[in-house]
Design goal:
The complex is a heterodimer. Chain A has five helices and nine strands, in the order H-E-E-E-E-E-H-E-H-E-H-E-E-H. By secondary structure, chain A is of the alpha+beta class. Chain B starts with a helix and ends with a helix. Classes of the chains: A alpha+beta, B mainly alpha. Chains A and B meet through helix 1 and helix 4 of A and helix 2, helix 3, helix 4 and helix 5 of B.
Chain lengths: 189, 163
């Protein structure tokens, strides 16, 4: 006798539809903002992307009293390492850099250490402690450090034989990482 | 006659000289403060890359070195925008205290406003619904289908009351 009442199809009101769209827009906007934040912050360590182009020229007064100018190093692969005697990762990296600098000295690879945010006495003690023999000097006014956009130490820039910055490594490197990059540059440049 | 004219001319020249002296006396400190003000504006807009606070708030070695570079560049005649561009080119946009109002960084300005507006709209909608009485529902909310359901329920109730 009683007819079954057909189930009523659920309908979504216009207000709810607008709400759903607003929530989707808000989520997408937040994801976009998160993406922008990650892009601006950049990678925190390892081999990072670098704006390739001519290396910014500099002249550094070395601890041994001589001077080194980047313009004089054209035709060589240059490993430019920013460090500080107070920096613990730099202490771990120092023997790696020295070993590799010695190994590649006669293969057209030159290491230059730029000591930054430091004082000369501590830097000299560091060099003596780790037996560092490659060119090293104090960037006392921070001009080279700022010109290269260094935001922490150790940071290492790799400059090819044509004077172009081609790689940047943030943080301490192992023997394998350092030689890997150098070998790559020797093959390609 | 000539003496009187000379006196007038002398007074006039004296007045001009006094005015000029007053102008330079008051304006020279302002002019001298101008590079300091320009530097201070940049200290507020740029960050120390290590401590992540503005240069104005930071007294670290790197922040002080950056301040030196800013002062040198201002003294060399570089503009506010040129100096900002110099640091952005080297450190990226992360060196800016506030993101630029252009390109992808515009999202950092627009998104909070969009989210606040969306959240505000949603809250307003919910509050409006909560405070609404059933008979205040808009006419379009009661469809012909609803009316048929109501009529049927009324009929069923009437029949069950008779039984």
């Amino acid at each position: 006798m009683n007819e079954a009442i057909p189930a009523k199809q659920p309908t979504v009101s216009v207000g709810r539809q607008i709400g759903i769209i607003a929530v989707i827009i808000a989520i997408l906007s937040l994801l976009g903002l998160l993406g922008y934040g990650l892009k601006v912050a950049g990678p925190t360590g390892g081999l990072v992307s670098v704006q390739q182009g001519p290396a910014r020229p500099f002249t550094l007064s070395l601890f041994d009293g001589s001077k080194v100018s980047l313009n004089d190093l054209k035709g060589k692969v240059v490993v430019l390492n920013f460090w500080g005697s107070w920096c613990v990762p730099c202490q771990a990296e120092a023997p790696v850099l020295e070993r590799t600098a010695r190994a590649y000295r006669d293969k057209g690879v030159l290491f230059v250490g730029i000591d930054t945010w430091d004082n000369e006495a501590d830097a000299r003690a560091f060099i003596s402690q780790y037996g560092i023999t490659y060119a090293n000097g104090l960037d006392d006014k921070g001009q080279i450090t700022i010109d290269y956009g260094v935001s922490g130490v150790p940071e290492t820039y790799f400059i090819d034989r044509n004077g172009q910055v081609v790689r940047k490594y943030v943080g301490p490197m192992s023997d394998a990482q350092l030689t890997g990059i150098i070998e790559d540059l020797l093959k390609t440049s | 006659m000539t003496v009187s004219r000379d006196i007038h001319r002398g007074r006039f020249l004296l007045s001009v000289l006094l005015l000029l002296a007053a102008f330079f006396a008051f304006s020279s400190p302002i002019l001298a403060d101008e590079p300091a003000r320009a530097a201070q504006a940049l200290y507020r807009e740029l960050k120390c890359p290590i401590c992540q606070t503005s240069l104005e708030q930071s007294d670290t070695q790197v922040a002080n070195q950056m301040k030196d570079v800013i002062r040198e560049k201002l003294a060399a005649g570089e503009t506010h925008e040129q100096i900002k561009a110099y640091f952005v080119e080297r450190y990226g946009e992360s060196i800016l205290v506030a993101p630029p109002k252009s390109g992808g960084a515009l999202a950092a300005w627009v998104v909070p406003a969009v989210v606040i507006m969306a959240a505000g709209g949603a809250v307003a909608l919910v509050l409006a619904r909560m405070g609404r009485k059933p008979d205040e529902l808009p006419a379009e909310a009661i469809t012909a289908e609803d009316a048929a359901y109501r009529a049927r329920i009324d009929e069923e109730l009437r029949l069950s009351a008779q039984d």
